[in-house]
Amino acid sequence: FLFTNLNLVIHKKFGIMAQLVIKGKTSYLCYDGYIYIKHSSSAASKYWGYKFHRECSAHLTSILDDRGNIVVKKGGDVESHNHAPNPEKVQALLLLTSMKRCASEHPEESPSR
Fold first, then answer.
1. pLDDT at res. 107
2. Of 56, 99, 101, 97, residue with least CA distance to 79
3. pLDDT at 14
């Protein structure tokens, strides 16, 4: 399934929402204060590993429901991590991606100083 225009992610059990970020060829899933990178997929599922995998080996699995929402099927809970969430890293990724997207969509604008 294609995630390029989807931002809605729902955890089946907790109802937590998250955001999908695509930078070049890399897909990031910002979910509950953690950042995951897509590392593989099958016909029905996508498999995500924690971005800072040397610190923590948490994973999650997502599927696409019949309404087009990404649903976290397994993992992604605080118990699967060996550290607290870091919402500042998530916000930094979202802000940087937003600025880069804006700059590429409006190249005629000069950078602010």
1. 76
2. 56
3. 54
Evaluate whether 10 touches 72 at the Cβ level (below 8 Å): yes
**Nearest CA to 21 among 12, 13, 31, 10?**
31
- 3-state class of 79 per DSSP? helix
Reported as half-sphere exposure (CB side, CA atoms, 13 A), residue 27 has a value of 19
pLDDT < 50 positions in the chain: 1-7
How many residues are given for the chain?
A: 113
Domains of the chain, earliest start first? 9-105 (2.20.25.240)
The sign of the dihedral angle between the CA atoms of 18, 60, 13, 34 is negative
Q: What angle do CA 40, 98, 31 make, to 5 degrees?
A: 45
**Euclidean distance between CA atoms 48 and 36, whole angstroms:** 6
**CA–CA distance, 92 with 40 (Å, rounded to integer):** 25
- Backbone phi, psi, residue 29, to 5°: -120, 110
d(CA 20, CA 25): 13
